[in-house]
Amino acid sequence: MTSISKNNITAPIQFLGLGCAFLALLFVINNFIIFNFGAPGLLHTLYLGDLSGVKVPKGGFSTYAITLGFFQTAAILAVISYSAYRAFGVRNLRKDAVTLDWISAYIVRAAFWAVLIVGFADAALSFLRVEGFHKVLFGESGGAAIALPSARGLYIHVPLMIVSALIALRDKSVSLVWLALLVVVAEFLIVIARFIYGYEQTFMGDLVRFWYAALFLFASAYTLKEDGHVRVDVFYAGLKRKTKSTLNIIGIVFFGLPLCWLILARGMWGKSSLINSPMLNFETSMSGFGMYVKYLMAAFLIIFALSMIFQFTAYLLNSIADIEEKITDDASDEEVNA
Q: To 5 degrees, how large is the angle CA 323–CA 328–CA 333?
């Protein structure tokens, strides 16, 4: 009876966590399809309502758009069904936690390589443009394209981000410590260039801010994985493991997951939302000769929310498993993961 009672309580929580994680990833993908390929989305496909920023063409959506909407809807139903199957059928909490942990780490790794490679490439292009070398190297048409934010984003940034995603599949480590070092090195070079050589350009400061923002937002999920976030542990530190796990579950369900979803929903619900607007318009800073990465800094919030959702859910499942398996404070990591 006790086991059945626990499953009746924890299985819905597991379903909620898995559903939140996978639907968040699908929400971001669907958002990209809706605003870049004219897909209707779930609400328009099922005639449930309107999605801000999506205009219904006269005469309705085309067959192509309706087909996309069908696959969007099918994907959402499939994710919900899979989450229910894992929660109420298989119920392998530790294995699901490892999978979610890997996805979170992969998102962070891919984002790290993207900001590293794109940062170097865009800073180099900005330097060439400032000094007037871009048209010498790439010709009139190529030099003019580099000066356009949309062209640099589509033909330089996007391919480099795809390469970064592939690199992250092979590189299994989270290399954020190197990003911290690069921030220090970049700032040091600015000081040397300014006070010794009298040379200063806008893109130099943009590169530091680009990497600095990435460091703090991308490292959040990794810090959560290592249990390194600062918490008010006056009482928490002395509690038993079961009580800690219960508090973690409550905090994740009522605070962690809703916060991440709030970021995604508020930032990406409409075409003019805080995240969508700069990304769709390849927004740049007001300084004409800086780096063209401001729109990517808006996308950092997506990386933060997604990586935190997956890491929160992995943390949630491990906490549930600790309670169900009656793990004590004396248990080692090998015993827990056995």
A: 95
